[in-house]
Each structure stands twice: as structure tokens, then as C-alpha cells.
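Researcher: Let's walk through a ligand-bound prediction step by step. First, I give you the protein sequence. Second, the SMILES string for zinc ion. Third, you return the three-dimensional complex as C-alpha cells. Ready?
Model: Ready.
Researcher: Here are steps one and two:
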Amino acid sequence: MFPNIPFDRVNWFTSGFLVITFFAAVIGTPIYFVYFGIDPVIIGLFATMFVASGMSITLGYHRLFAHKAFKAKKPVKIFTLLFGAAAFEDSALDWASDHRNHHKHVDGDEDPYDISKGFFWAHMGWIFFKLYPRELDNVNDLKKDTLVMWQHKHHRLLGMLVGIVLPTLIGALYNGWVGALGGFIVGGVARLVAVQHSTFLINSLCHTMGKRPYDSGTSARDHWFMAIFTFGEGYHNYHHSFQHDYRNGVKPWQWDPTKWAIWTLEKLGLVSHLRRVSEEKIVLAELREIKNQTEAQIVDNQGWKLITCSTRQEAYEKLVEISHQLAEGYHELEKAVGDRINMSRENLAYWRDQTARAAEQITAMRHLQATFAV
Ligand SMILES: [Zn+2]
Ligand SMILES: [Zn+2]
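Model: Step three, the predicted complex:
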């Protein structure tokens, strides 16, 4: 009936869990609220559990364990391991191993959630199939961490206790069996489904929708809209360019609550050694990307230089002039990065402006291209 599906490789336990929890959440939650009324305490329980388990994935599983973007003291490790288990996304060790493979082989065959196999595959399709035995040969550093190994051994039990029993118990203490049911369905099941799909979106939509200001050679993209649902992980093009940075939304105005949480924990003395990519490296990456685009656009519009006295010729010449400036900036920044020299704020701002100017000119040229093509 479905000849393309390798049924012998289907992981029935995980697939069943994903499907049953999904339908239980989308059907059970509205029924609960219609039957017992919208209770702000139950909604608050959902929100608290969502933030605790969602951030344990972004701050703990992702930035701390998979990328080692900072060092954490025991309380932070224990919290993120417990509430990370409550998201039912495997152990931190398994998760980090898959994720390191994703970065190493992005868009290739060995990328576990390879977007070139389709949106649904990258979102959750890959989880329906057996991932075991994982080789786990890229997480030897984490294997030395006794807390990580303890969670790896017991993550299903911990997930049940923290992710399901805890919200049910809180609901029961608040409002007897009605509260317990709300805690179970809304705070437990619907919340875990919401956290899972928020993570899945990073692998699917963040590799589909948005811009690529740092590197157009990868499918990973930046989009503010995605950052809202993913505790700041939506700046995925930046992340794939600089995976060890504790920030994903690197600009001060970008929505990245995980970055703010890590920064706050540092002030409280609970985390340390935050890794930051230098401004020079970031501007260099942006400038390199726009320089490549500028050069491609020049090649594309070579014929325009022969059109005398026209807007197209003017636009072409302007882009060539910008391209020369970008080449100059590229060498200056590359040298600064190589020699680990800090450039002045004014100098960095100047090259950022040149990058923005080049982007505007490329847009203007594409507009002209479209106008004259008609
Ligand atoms: Zn990715
Ligand atoms: Zn990552």
C-alpha cells in the first residue's frame, strides 16, 4: 500500500507517542476548556511548564550541552536535564549527538533532519524511524559528565515524573480532580506537544523561511517571526555560521530570551565562560556574503555597461564602485580578524553601512531587471 515507507525501520513506540500525544492535545484541550471553563491558573501552569521545558531544550540541550557555548554550575545542569527530559525529545546525550551531526553534515545525507528530504521529514518525519543504535561517537566530552549520563539512563522516567506527574499533582492541589485533569491534559500533554513542535520548527521552517545574511551556502535562515516561537532560536543562519556563540539573535534588538537568560545566570554566578564571536568576524561574514552577491549581480548584468546614458548603466557603475569598496573592506576586516585586532566602533559601523548600501543597490538592480524584462 505504501511501497516507499520502510516499515521494518519504523519506530512504533516513538511514532505512537508522537501521534497519540498530538491528537490528545488538540482534541483534549478544547474539550477541557469548554467543559470546565477557561481557568487562568491552568493556563499559567501551561505557560510555566512551557517556558521551563522549552528553555531547558534551547538553553540546556542546545546551547550548553550540544554546543558548549558556556559553562554551567550543577543547579543549571540539573534543572535543564530534568525539565529537558519533560519535553520528551530523548536524552541530552542523544539530542546533542544528533544535533552535532546536523551541524557537521547540514543539508547532506548524514544530517539527521536534512531539509532537502522535504519539510515534513525535517520537521518530524525523521523521528518516526529507528535512530538506534546511535553511534554517539561525537559526544565523548558529554559522556564524562555524570549528570548527563544519569539523565541518559533515566530520561523516560524523569520525563514522566517532571513532565506529566508534576503538573497533574499541582493541578490536583489547586482544584481536586478537575485541576488534576487540567494539569495532565494542558500542563502535561498539550505543553509537551507545543514544546516539541517549537523545536521541530527550528529544523523545518528555520531551514525554509527567512534571510541568509551570513552565509547563503547553507539552508539555515534568519527570521524574527520564528524567534518568537523558539525562545530566540529563529536566527538560524547566524547560528549555523557561528554555532559556539551563546547568542543566536546577536543584534541588540533581536528577540532572544535564551541569550538574556544565559546573561542573567552569568550575573547570578550560575554560568560562566560565555563564548562570543568578535564583532569583526560577524561584520566580515556579512560583508563576505554581500560581496559575493554583488559580484554575482555584476556578472548577471554585464551587458548594462554598454548601454550609454541610461539608468541601467548608472546602476551598473554604482554597483561596480560598491564592489571595489567591499573588496577593500574585506581585506581590512580579514586582516583584523587574522591578527586579532579590535577595530574602532566607527570603522565597524562604516563597513556595516557599506554592506547595507550594497544590499540596497542589489535590490534596486533586481527591480530594474524586472522592469526591463517586461
Ligand atoms: Zn539547523
Ligand atoms: Zn545548533
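Researcher: And what stands out?
Model: The chain has a mean pLDDT of 93. The chain has two domains: 7-272, 279-371.
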